[in-house]
Design goal:
The structure is a single chain. The chain is α/β, with parallel strands linked by helices and about 325 residues long. The protein has two domains: about 180 residues, D-Maltodextrin-Binding Protein, domain 2 (3-Layer(aba) Sandwich), CATH 3.40.190; about 120 residues, Periplasmic binding protein-like II (D-Maltodextrin-Binding Protein, domain 2, 3-Layer(aba) Sandwich), CATH 3.40.190.10. Helices cover about 45% and strands about 20% of the residues. The protein is built from eleven helices and ten strands. Strands 1, 2, 3, 4, 5, 6, 7, 8, 9 and 10 form a ten-stranded mixed β-sheet that branches. α2 links the parallel β1 and β2. α1 packs across α9 and α4 runs parallel beside α11. The longest helix has 28 residues. It starts with a helix and ends in a 5-residue tail after the last helix.
Length: about 325
Amino acid sequence: MNLIRSFLVAVVAAMSMLAFFAGHAVAQTYPSKPVKIIVPFPPGQGTDVATRFLAAKLTKAFGHNFLVENRPGAGASLGTEVLAKSAPDGYTLGIGTAGTHTMNPSLYPSVGYDPEKDFEPITLTGMLPLMVAAYPGFPANSIQELIALAKAKPDTINVALPSPPQRVAFEMLRQQAGAPLFGIPYKGSATALPEVMSGQVPLILDSITALRPHVNSGKLKALGVTSANATELMPGVKSVAEQGLPGYELTAWNAFFAPKGTPQSIVILLNTEVRKILAEPETRQRLMALGFEVTGSTPQELAERVRTEREKWNRIIRAAKITVD
């Protein structure tokens, strides 16, 4: 019996050693051909622009092309499903977001993938705080004043919500503040912004990327940001949490993922290279201009973020009965 046990232990050890050296060999030769990065959004959108910048940096770092392929649709679930079903060889990567990996499974009847079981997390690349803004003539100038006004005039103050994550942030604000605001869903910022800037709808909750140019030009005024603290993306604007709602936070994010089963040696190599790129001053300046706070992570940290946020947003979405057709 001891001989059999010893033999089995030796076999397992040998197999582990072979797997280690095989993975190491793969990492040494990777990549040997172009790498595709799936972006589940249309060309020109902020995540697309940021990813193309990072792809060019990865191309320079590895000496092989990293090419962006846009696969939009179904609230970014379509491209994410394509990534989940791709070969786990390191030659198809993708960008995941707080929407695709933590909210969509609760918002849509079916997304065709499991955020925790179908992907290898690689690294966060950027955090994207949202912002509450109003047309210039709106009487409230802060979140506290907005809450007081909403309580004085229940269900008369409308808020434009251009996408599902904004709807989740709105419901969390309404629940935590006890503010009887009324949310109006829109299909994108382009349709919502003209009505807010004209005063037809007084308020909007959207990404800093979408709202910052209009705040800077005076066409909108900022009331608060949804990050835990104030962000250098919008100097001088307090967070919602800093304005009487401690604990309030919803920050969108972008991250690199690979299909489940991608060799860990490749995951580690990509994590190392992407984080080097994120540390470059040029990268920080470019992503900040696009409305991203540059943030890297370990694969384990990204996996934990997906798990905890998925649970958190699921509770909010179910309580508010938010659905997307």
